[in-house]
Amino acid sequence: MSDTAKNETKNKDHYQFKKNSADYIRFSLMEYNGSLYVDVRTWRQPDEEGEELRPLVKGVRFNAELWDEFKEGIEAIGASLEGAEGMG
Predict the structure, then answer these.
(1) Domain-by-domain residue ranges, the chain?
(2) Count of CB atoms situated within 10 Å of the CB of 21
(3) pLDDT at 10 over 80
């Protein structure tokens, strides 16, 4: 197997939502060098009509083995947000 084939990156997008008029938050799984990664990244709609979304540097990528820890962090923030309602 060539180095190029060995280092091939495979992405599978699972979910995205609109952040604002130009940006989306996209959740993807990425396989690289035989390891699975979770990628949560901001993607931007180019100014030119018809062009595909492009990834920005803003985001986080981590080994899928850390998924349970990531979920715990999201749940903790969710609980804090619920407790913060009406504090604005």
Answers:
(1) 3-84
(2) 6
(3) no
CA angle (58 as vertex; 88, 3 as ends), nearest 5 = 155
- Residue 3: per-residue pLDDT: 45
Is 90 exceeded by the pLDDT of residue 5?
no
Beta carbons within 8 Å of 51's beta carbon, 6+ residues apart: 45
Segment 3-32 mean pLDDT? 83
Distance (Å, whole) CA 31 – CA 39? 10
At the topology level, CATH places domain 3-84 in: Transcriptional Co-activator pc4; Chain A (2.30.31)
Q: Amino acid letter at 88?
A: G
**Tokens standing for residue 88:** 């604005």
Which is nearest to 41 in space by CA: 63, 61, 69? Answer: 61
